[in-house]
Design a protein that fits this description.
Elements lengths: L3 H11 L8 H9 L6 H6 L6 H12 L8 H6 L1 H5 L5 H10 L3
Helix pairs in contact: 1-7, 2-4
């Protein structure tokens, strides 16, 4: 399992004009937009699924458990060969997504 903190360098390489912040601060910033305009929703699409992110935050604040993939790995040779996400994989995704 890869910790998000270990992937931040790959993201900040592609987004040099932003500073990482913690999830709670980011959610609070979004929640401060009480009546989002169409422009707000365009610029910050996360506003549309704010409840989802609050659920992630609630889970992060509780004891977190990694997803169990044992049965999936037993059924899939591809899953058996996968390694945890690392900086190299994140960089590849960022290039593929054209960030």
């Amino acid at each position: 399992m890869a910790a998000w903190e270990s992937l931040i360098p790959a993201v900040t390489t592609h987004f040099t004009d932003v500073q990482p912040i913690d999830l709670a601060t980011w959610i609070s910033t979004l929640e401060a937009i009480k009546t989002p305009t169409e422009e707000d929703l365009q610029d910050k699409p996360a506003l549309k699924i704010l409840d989802f992110f609050n659920g992630i935050l609630a889970g992060a604040e509780a004891e977190s458990h990694p997803l169990e993939t044992k049965k999936t790995q037993e059924a899939s040779e591809t899953m058996q060969k996968l390694k945890p996400i690392d900086v190299d994989i994140m960089n590849a995704w960022m290039r593929q997504w054209k960030f």
